[in-house]
Amino acid sequence: MPRWSPLDPEIDRRFVQDLNEGGEEALAALYDRYAERLYDYCLTLTWESKAAADLVHDTFIDAYRRAPRMRDRTQLRAWLYGAARRRCLQRGRARGLYWDWMDQPGVVIDSETGLTVPGLSELFESALSRLDFADQEVLLLALRHGLSGLGLAAVLGVPARRAATRLAQARARGEAVVAEEAQALSRQCADRAIVRAREPAEAGAEMDAFEADEHGENCLDCRRRARVAIGPLYALAPAPVLPVALRHRVLHTATDPELAGHRADIAARGGGLTPDGMPHQPDVPSHTARRWLFAGGGAAGALVTALVAVLVMGPGITVAPNLEWPFQPQPRPTASPAAPDTEEPVALPPGGAPPAGGRPGDAGPPGPRNEEPTPAPGRGPQTPVPPRPGQLVVGPDVLTLRPGQSVGHLTLTAVQGPVLWNATSSSVLVSLSESTGTVPLGSEVKVDVKLARGLLRLPGEATVTFAAETGAEQQIKVTWGLSLL
User: Is residue 302 part of a domain?
Assistant: First the structure.
């Protein structure tokens, strides 16, 4: 059972001030006050006495160089435990807690319950085996080493509220498993008693509930185990013996001028410090890493949500107009020009002569008609014959826009004569640089096909219809894939 001196924050403040002045006496006094505690903590985590001694040595050398950097100088104890914890975790994955119970066999170490070392160790080890390492460690720091509040939070590298929550939950789970293990050990004790009391032929028979209750009331060891809680188990565990040569080794390494490089290497292996000057724990992400983690998680979540939406809605879905950016309607192409009015045929009366006054329904008296004689071929001026309309050819038949591409090109060509054309789109997402025009014979016209930009552009397709003045139409298919802005 450890017999450590009580802690005082004001003494820690004076220690830090003396360390800042670089005195060897300050390091010696600091070692005398905390060496046994730190050695007990490191040996409990590492299970090896030599490794624990090396870790305690490096912790004091690191504290001699960097402990005065802490902002709150009353947290020197938390600084030392935090530095030792980081070095223990850097050695590898912890297997649990360890104590050497063989130093005091058969000795009563709990005056209230009267449990001896074998009974206490059996109950403690069986209870710890059912707790994970996080619960074991937080109970070790709080119940055995007296760390709580801001000190416990600084050692674990978490906020004070989270540290208090972890401690409360670990203590509740620890009390529950100790009570269950005490009951299990009482049943085993009762089984052994029943076996000894019965005949050899009935040795394999199980006892009933009445016999178990009666044994639990009469057995002194079972009554003692029922009164044990998780706190005394941690406090009553045996304290290891500190190596005698460790103090001289620490003071020699800290003061020998030839070991300056070795001291710098020890401090470098201690890792970085938090903004408050406390050792940064390897199992706690830094503030910068936490911000990047949140930002990357948000971006990844948005991307996954978009991909899930695309898979659910299907590849043929089109984007609603309210998802477009910059949230304004796209201009539609103008309608095709109206064809010129044609004159209706005039019905001739019997005899073949047209009615007086021209068209039917015209008012006015009949008058002489002024008709120009048709000139004979080769004589006088002739009316020019308009060119015959040509055929419109548009290519390619399918225009595919790659991810990130918002503009494509179509080529219009006139065959056998000039062409007057117009075009319309089946989707508001697709617009043309020109919706009408003329293609001279033997020339080509480039028309840009523009796809509306948006925050999220889902896969889709549209049809652009080109119509010539002859009435012939040609449809061009425009397709595009998934794209993010």
Answer: no
For the segment 86-112, what is each residue's pLDDT rounded down to a tens digit?
999 888 756 678 787 765 544 445 545
Task: Compute, in degrees rounded to 10, the torsion defined by CA atoms 189, 195, 197, 202.
Answer: 150
- Say how far apart CA 173 and CA 166 lie, in whole Å: 11
Same domain for 22 and 162, yes or no, is: yes
| Structure tokens given for 225 | 């185990």
Note the pTM of the prediction, 2 decimals: 0.57
Domain total in the chain:
2
Q: Which long-range contacts (CB under 8 A, 24 or more apart) does 434-439 make?
A: 435/333, 435/334, 436/334, 436/336, 436/337, 439/390, 439/392, 439/412, 439/413, 439/414
Domain boundary among 223, 252, 269: 269
Task: Identify the domain containing residue 14 by its residue range.
Answer: 9-269
Residue 296 lies in a domain: no
Q: Using CA of residue 193, residue 198, residue 199, residue 201, what is the dihedral sign?
A: negative
219 vs 183: CA distance, rounded Å:
13
Where does residue 42 rank: exposed (0-12), middle (13-18), buried (19+ CB within 10 A)?
buried
How is residue 389 written in tokens? Answer: 């309309």
Distance CA 349, CA 353 (A): 6
Q: Domain holding 420: CATH number? A: 2.60.40.10
Alpha-carbon gap, residue 46 to 150, rounded angstroms = 25
Backbone angles phi, psi at 49, to 5 degrees: -70, -40
Residue 444 covered by a domain: yes
Residue whose C-alpha is closest to residue 263's, from 58, 15, 17, 29:
58
For residue 412, the Cα-to-chain-centroid distance in whole angstroms is 52
Q: CA dihedral defined by 219, 224, 226, 228, rounded to 10 degrees?
A: -170
pLDDT digits (tens, 9 = 90+) for 116-170: 666 677 778 888 888 999 999 999 999 999 998 999 999 999 999 999 999 999 9
Per residue, what are the HEC states of 88-102? HHHCCCCCCCCCCHH
Task: Point out the least confidently predicted range of 89-93, 444-448, 460-464.
Answer: 89-93
